[in-house]
């Protein structure tokens, strides 16, 4: 029923489309349509997997796996695997993949083919990260996603784009190269113990390491993932990257790239090094919570709307880290759901800010005011996503946050309480944003249109999803339930022995 | 063994003189001569070792012949490079050739 | 009747005969020489490549002085490819600048012969002769632009440094000969170390290492590199930075594989220090460069440091990593300097980084070649350099050189910065990038081939890796 290399098809279809697009260098419109077609086809493939497979399996196992030999001399295989968590995340990926093309439809007018090539190859990289189960393959995709992002920020960004792009890559590379050392390290240790050199995640889980070694390896992995997430002290690249990136770049950054960080912590760092992870739980919680507070504090002082949303993004990711660190079925489900929620809400906010920027050519809060009167529909959407961002019950973020906080309360009540207080801070800066930008007197007498049909087409799916997840999260939670239970079962006990 | 060490000492002195000359000299011809000295030191070594340590096969002597040939080729090419430089700068002082630096 | 002795030197004969024929053509056929010479050069390099790739001579030739195993044949193929690419890149370049005479093409072939001899030598004399042939030819090639003062100066600098290196090498070989009584490389280095010969052996090896260090520009013997790379004509730089370094490194790999454990135990710490220094100094110095060729020169210095790091693992199966990376390195540097060659204007080389602003859009394919080569040098996917770096670090860590690998990783992080800087200039800044150079279809074709190979090896490295591990295992027995 399902073709043998469906997963490869899903991953590489966007890249293929990107290469085709490159051939239409001089024709912007075909580029856009081809990219849109490719991205839609990818989403269609993924949705059909969802509809067909889920009925069959239901369990927490891997739904589809793919495995062929690749670099035999080193024991590296080309192996992919799809479970509920990755299915949910690749659905998000391909959904946002369509959105970013629509968003850039009128925004990007120069070097259109190249832009879409990078967008689509970026999507390939992210999909690969979510599906790879061989550590080397994972590392390859992990590095691969950096390259297109570098160009998207650097070519189509704003004034200080080159600086931001280089900073982004340097931060990422620093983390990932150290991870590479640890990755080789665990493979070598495993190989010398068993005589079987393998990069497969399934083989390497359960490798017995001396606790010193394990701590170092875990630290290296965590650094790479924390930079992407971004966790509190290593987040400084993110505001720059967001501010300088074009809207599509911001959406990809917030919606997809950051998710690869938390996903990798949950899929690779914790299961591979459970006892080290157990030791690190308090540290992670503290860092995650400091992220929440720090980001909210800084967001309060921002004058640039895009920067404000970027900082709010850091805060939300901090909470996800808290949920991962607590490592029980409830918080993990919450964290995965929250990854999706954050991907939707923050992306939508970035898109809205981008639309304003397109109209007024400014992102400064002080240039706005009284938008509500000028653009009522637009403001309605903005308010909806702001409410979602601060966790209004009935909207998506509420579900994820409450799961994380309740689950954390069971293990670390103090952390949960502090996290809850952090959420209140979010309330303050989001309300300030709304008040400054949307109410009050219009400060300039600009004449702007309300949203166009294309923009509505972008925003409506976001709004529907935000409300759907808020009211009826069960299909999503069911999807992650099985895999999450497995993770807790396999890794949880080992973590506790480490913490003792 | 004493005789061998005499040769070795002479060879080492030749080699060191060559190296020192190369570092000290600013005259291109002088540098060329220093290079020859270094190679001669090595040749002398080969001859001495061949004579005292491995007398039967004539390998050391053959190597020396090759080194002589190569030294001649090297001198020829070196001189032609120096000549090309001299035409341009009207000097054989190496410090005049300092266009490339970073 | 042909016995295996002649089959062994088939590639060598092909190159030497090609060189001599070219000189004859230059001397006797004044009128049509300029048409025939490039074809002759191309044909003899191709012959050398084909004969070393497909004809297995069966056994070592010439009293065992010349290895004919997979190892030397593999490198012979690489050198033939490098020569072919260099010929293609320099075809228009040399003609437009008026140095496309018989001497350029003939000497290029002799240099290639020197490389094959160096990589295939199993006797110190052959190694020495090959190296000197290579060096002498390179002096001439670097000075190819007779009227360009930079070219002359570069040749002079390389000449002085090369001669010093040659002197050290000869003296070192003499000492090794004295201590071991053998001129055969594997027998000499494979002999056990005793209290009597320890001092002599180490002295000889250190002197040889100084000579080799000069040739592959390891820190602290690297100071000539940027000047020479900058002054030499770009295609010659491509040839010099790839061919001569790969050849000498192949020889060094052979020495390391042959050397006795006890000898190796003394050499390893030396290599450790050299590798660490080379990686750090090469990459950090490259940060400050404002000229592309100098930047690439420092980058190539650093690359040698990475390879030296993996060379330390040679006794633990690291040899195939070294060979793989050498092949990849040859492609990357050939492509990078080749791109400089095809992007250069007629009157002068395009060297200042600022001259490359916005080049990515003016010449998408040529700048694309440069970009892919730089990405590969930086070790980013999906290029061969990514796999290569991974293989190197894998070898080093597997052999237990974790600290050195960490030094290498830190150096690699630094290096990403300057590669990205060039990338930013190529694609993210706008500006007039000057005159549009014209080059033939050939140069672009070679560029595209390098680009394709880099990407292909980045995605399916397995066949080459398997082939190399077979070759290496045949050498170590």
What's this model, at a glance?
Chain A has 20 helices and two strands. By secondary structure, chain A is mainly alpha-helical. Chain A has a domain of 228 residues.
Describe the model.
The complex is a heterotrimer of chains A (500), B (102) and C (477). Helices cover 77% and strands 3% of the residues of chain A. By secondary structure, chain A is mainly α. Chain A has a domain at 273-500. Chain A has a two-stranded antiparallel ribbon. Chain A is globular, with a radius of gyration of 22 Å. The N and C termini of chain A lie far apart (48 Å). The mean pLDDT of chain A is 88. Chain B has one domain: Helix Hairpins, CATH 1.10.287. Helices cover 77% and strands 0% of the residues of chain B. Chain B starts with a helix and ends in a 13-residue tail after the last helix. The mean pLDDT of chain B is 84. Chain B has 102 residues and is mainly α. Chain C is mostly helical and 477 residues long. Chain C has one domain (4-476). Chain C is built from 20 helices and no strands. In chain C, helix 3 (33-54) runs antiparallel to helix 4 (70-96) and helix 14 (319-343) packs across helix 20 (462-476). Chain B binds chain C through residues 11, 15, 18-19, 22, 28, 31, 35, 38-39, 41-43, 45-46, 49, 53-54, 59-60, 62-63, 66-67, 70, 73-74, 77-78, 81-82, 84-85, 88-89, 94, 97-102, and chain C through 124-125, 128-129, 132, 136, 139-140, 143, 146, 149-150, 152-157, 159-160, 163-164, 166-168, 170-171, 173-175, 177-178, 181, 183, 226-227, 230-231, 289-291, 294.
Please give a handful of descriptors for the protein shown.
heterotrimer; A: 500 residues; mainly alpha; two-stranded antiparallel ribbon; 20 helices; 2 strands; 77% helix; 3% strand; globular; C: 477 residues; 0% strand
Low-confidence stretches of chain B: none
**How many distinct folded domains of chain B?**
1
Supply the number of helical segments of chain B: 3
The level-1 CATH class of chain B = Mainly Alpha
- The global form of chain A is globular
Percent of residues of chain B in helical segments?
Answer: over 70%
Low-confidence stretches of chain A: none
End-to-end separation of chain A: 48 Å
**Global morphology of chain B:** elongated
Give a quick account of the main beta sheet of chain B: strands, pairing sense, barrel closure: none
Share of β-strand residues of chain A: under 5%
Order of helices and strands of chain A: HHEEHHHHHHHHHHHHHHHHHH
Q: Numbering strands along the chain, what is their spatial order in the largest sheet of chain A? A: 1-2
- The overall pLDDT average of chain A reads 88
H/E series of chain B: HHH
Which class of secondary structure composition applies to the elements of chain A? mainly alpha
Known CATH architecture of chain B: Orthogonal Bundle
Percent range for helical residues of chain A? over 70%
The overall average pLDDT of chain B, rounded, is 84
Question: Termini distance of chain B?
Answer: 51 Å
Give the total of beta strands of chain B.
0
């Amino acid at each position: 029923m399902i073709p043998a290399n469906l997963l490869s098809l899903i991953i590489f279809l966007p890249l293929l489309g990107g290469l085709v697009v490159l051939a239409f260098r001089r024709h912007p419109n075909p580029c856009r349509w081809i990219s849109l077609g490719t991205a839609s086809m990818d989403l269609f493939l993924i949705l059909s997997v969802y509809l067909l497979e889920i009925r069959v399996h239901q369990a927490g196992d891997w739904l589809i796996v793919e495995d062929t030999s690749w670099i035999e001399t080193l024991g590296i295989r080309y192996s992919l695997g799809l479970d509920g968590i990755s299915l949910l995340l690749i659905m998000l990926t391909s959904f946002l993949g369509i959105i970013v093309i629509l968003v850039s439809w009128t925004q990007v007018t120069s070097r259109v083919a190249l832009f879409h090539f990078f967008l689509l190859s970026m999507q390939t990289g992210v999909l690969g990260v979510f599906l790879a189960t061989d550590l080397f393959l994972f590392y390859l995709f992990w590095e691969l996603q950096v390259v297109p992002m570098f160009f998207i920020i650097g070519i189509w960004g704003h004034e200080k784009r080159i600086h931001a792009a280089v900073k982004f890559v340097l931060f990422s590379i620093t983390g990932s190269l150290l991870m590479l050392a640890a990755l080789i390290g665990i493979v070598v240790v495993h190989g010398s113990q068993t005589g079987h050199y393998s990069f497969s995640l399934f083989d390497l889980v359960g490798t017995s390491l001396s606790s010193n070694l394990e701590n170092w390896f875990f630290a290296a992995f965590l650094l790479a993932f924390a930079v992407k997430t971004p966790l509190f002290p290593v987040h400084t690249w993110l505001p720059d990257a967001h501010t300088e990136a074009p809207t599509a770049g911001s959406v990809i950054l917030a919606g997809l790239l950051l998710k690869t960080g938390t996903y990798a912590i949950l899929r690779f760092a914790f299961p591979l090094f459970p006892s080290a992870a157990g030791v690190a739980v308090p540290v992670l919680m503290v860092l995650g919570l400091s992220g929440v507070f720090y980001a909210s504090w800084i967001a309060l002082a921002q004058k640039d709307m895009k920067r404000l949303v970027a900082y709010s993004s850091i805060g939300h990711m901090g909470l996800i880290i808290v949920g991962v660190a607590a490592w029980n079925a409830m918080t993990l489900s919450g964290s995965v759901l929250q990854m999706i929620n954050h991907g939707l809400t923050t992306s939508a906010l970035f898109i809205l800010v981008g639309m304003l920027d397109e109209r007024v050519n400014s992102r400064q809060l002080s240039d706005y005011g009284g938008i509500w009167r000028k653009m009522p529909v637009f403001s309605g959407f903005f308010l909806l996503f702001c409410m979602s961002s601060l966790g209004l019950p009935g909207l998506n973020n509420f579900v994820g946050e409450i799961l994380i906080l309740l689950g954390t309360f069971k293990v670390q009540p103090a952390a949960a309480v502090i996290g809850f207080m952090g959420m209140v801070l979010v309330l303050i800066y989001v309300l300030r944003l709304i008040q400054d930008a949307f109410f009050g007197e219009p400060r300039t007498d600009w004449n702007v249109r309300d949203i166009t049909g294309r923009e509505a087409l972008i925003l409506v799916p976001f709004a529907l999803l935000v409300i759907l997840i808020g009211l009826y999260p069960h299909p999503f939670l069911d999807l992650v339930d099985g895999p999450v239970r497995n993770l807790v079962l396999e890794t949880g006990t080992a973590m506790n022995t480490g913490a003792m | 063994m004493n005789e061998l060490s005499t040769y070795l000492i002479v060879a080492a002195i030749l080699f060191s003189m060559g190296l020192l000359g190369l570092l000290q000299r600013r005259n291109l011809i002088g540098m060329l001569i220093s290079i020859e000295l270094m190679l001669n030191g090595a040749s002398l070594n080969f001859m001495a070792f061949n004579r005292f340590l491995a007398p039967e096969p004539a390998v050391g002597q053959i190597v020396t012949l090759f080194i002589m040939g190569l030294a001649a080729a090297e001198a020829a090419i070196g001189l032609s490079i120096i000549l090309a430089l001299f035409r341009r700068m009207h000097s054989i002082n190496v410090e005049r050739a300092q266009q490339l630096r970073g | 009747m042909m016995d295996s002795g002649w089959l062994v030197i088939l590639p060598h004969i092909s190159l030497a005969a090609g060189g001599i024929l070219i000189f004859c053509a230059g001397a006797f056929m004044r009128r049509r020489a300029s048409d025939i010479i490039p074809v002759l050069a191309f044909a003899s390099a191709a012959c050398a490549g084909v004969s070393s790739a497909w004809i297995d001579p069966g056994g070592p030739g010439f009293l065992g002085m010349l290895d004919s195993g997979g190892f030397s044949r593999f490198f012979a193929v690489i050198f033939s490819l490098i020569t072919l690419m260099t010929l293609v890149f320099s075809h228009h370049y040399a003609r437009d600048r008026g140095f496309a005479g018989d001497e350029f093409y003939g000497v290029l072939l002799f240099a290639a012969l020197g490389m094959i001899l160096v990589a295939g030598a199993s006797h110190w004399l052959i190694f020495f002769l090959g190296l000197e042939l290579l060096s002498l030819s390179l002096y001439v090639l670097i000075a190819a632009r007779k009227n360009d003062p930079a070219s002359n100066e570069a040749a002079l600098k390389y000449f002085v440094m090369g001669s010093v290196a040659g002197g050290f090498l000869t003296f070192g070989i003499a000492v090794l000969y004295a201590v071991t009584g053998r001129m055969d490389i594997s027998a000499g280095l494979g002999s056990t170390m005793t209290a009597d010969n320890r001092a002599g052996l180490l002295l000889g090896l250190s002197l040889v290492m100084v000579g080799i260090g000069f040739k592959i520009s390891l820190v602290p013997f690297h100071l000539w590199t940027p000047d020479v790379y900058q002054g030499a004509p770009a295609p010659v730089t491509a040839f010099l930075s790839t061919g001569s370094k790969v050849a000498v490194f192949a020889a060094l790999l052979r020495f390391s594989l042959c050397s006795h454990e006890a000898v190796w135990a003394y050499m390893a710490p030396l290599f450790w220090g050299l590798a660490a220094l080379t990686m750090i100094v090469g990459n950090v110095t490259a940060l400050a460069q404002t000229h592309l060729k100098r930047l690439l020169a420092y980058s190539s210095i650093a690359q040698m440091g990475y390879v030296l790091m993996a060379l330390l693992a040679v006794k633990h199966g690291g040899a195939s990593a070294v060979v793989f990376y050498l092949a990849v390195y040859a492609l990357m540097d050939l492509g990078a300097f080749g791109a400089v060659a095809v992007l250069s204007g007629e009157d002068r080389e395009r060297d200042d980084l600022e001259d490359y602003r916005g080049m990515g859009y003016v010449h998408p394919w040529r700048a694309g070649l440069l970009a892919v080569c730089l990405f590969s040098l930086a070790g980013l996917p999906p290029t061969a350099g990514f796999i290569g770096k991974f293989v190197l670090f894998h070898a080093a860590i597997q052999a237990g050189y974790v600290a050195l690998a960490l030094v290498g990783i830190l150096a690699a992080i630094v290096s990403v910065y300057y590669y990205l800087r060039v990338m930013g200039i190529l694609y993210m800044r706008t500006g007039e990038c000057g005159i549009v150079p014209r080059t033939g279809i050939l140069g672009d074709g070679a560029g595209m081939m390098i680009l394709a190979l880099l990407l292909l090896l980045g995605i399916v490295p397995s066949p080459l890796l398997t082939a190399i591990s077979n070759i290496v295992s045949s050498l170590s027995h």
